[in-house]
Structure prediction request, 282 residues.
Amino acid sequence: MPKTLVVAAAHDEHTLEAVFTAADKLSIRYILVGNREKINVLSSVLGVKVEQSAIIDSMDDIDSARKAVAVIRDKGADALMKGILETRTLLKEVLEREIGIRGTGTLSHLAVLEVPIYKKLIGITDGGMIPHPTLAQKADIAINAATFYRQIGCKTPKIAALCAAESVSPKIQETVDAAELQEMCRRGELGDCLLEGPISFDLSVSKESAKIKGYKGQISGETDILLVPDITVGNVLAKALTYWAGAKMAGCILGAKVPIVLASRGASAEEKLLSIMISTAV
Prediction:
């Protein structure tokens, strides 16, 4: 059964280009919420005639977000996409206690990158939602990412709880948290995954570095997900890999009732398409 995507504030050329490509290549169905006139003009520029029944007209960004979330709440779509509106505007409607679509745990952002020098896709979480996550929130973030990876075919995701070094220091809270997350994983509290921490970036992605440093873990050079200590590390790492290492990136928010396609308003049509692909793969 084809997946249906609802787009909030869809009156944006790059967003529409990505949605139409997904519809053509992946048989994705779509509902476009936004300024009907602008959507029709932009669609015409892109050479696509949109059925008017697939457009829900809206007055402004808040109205777009509210109507798009209502489509999800009424089970009219399988994924939600941010168009040309601010993230906080969309998430405010997602998180509304009475009419939103929040899940039971923590919402977190997952960036999935294809890095030319790494042999498989690498996830980075959370670089977009929670500035300074608590231990409990980090556990939720790990569970969200591991669940997603299992849904796309990775049986036992390998997660690196990143820190500046691999030793625990009471003066560096993220190392204490990482060690506790590792114990939680061993007790089965994070689901089917393998989490190690504290662990530095080089040990996470390089077997050679682990051998040189005598690190005895199981995930070096095989890591699937980088669990970062705070939003700044995740944001900088993902953007550095994209801008300086030629990585391609897709992003989504996990933990709501459906995946949320989240790319920057200035993101390319390709990045938005990739984000649609990963969000509708589950």
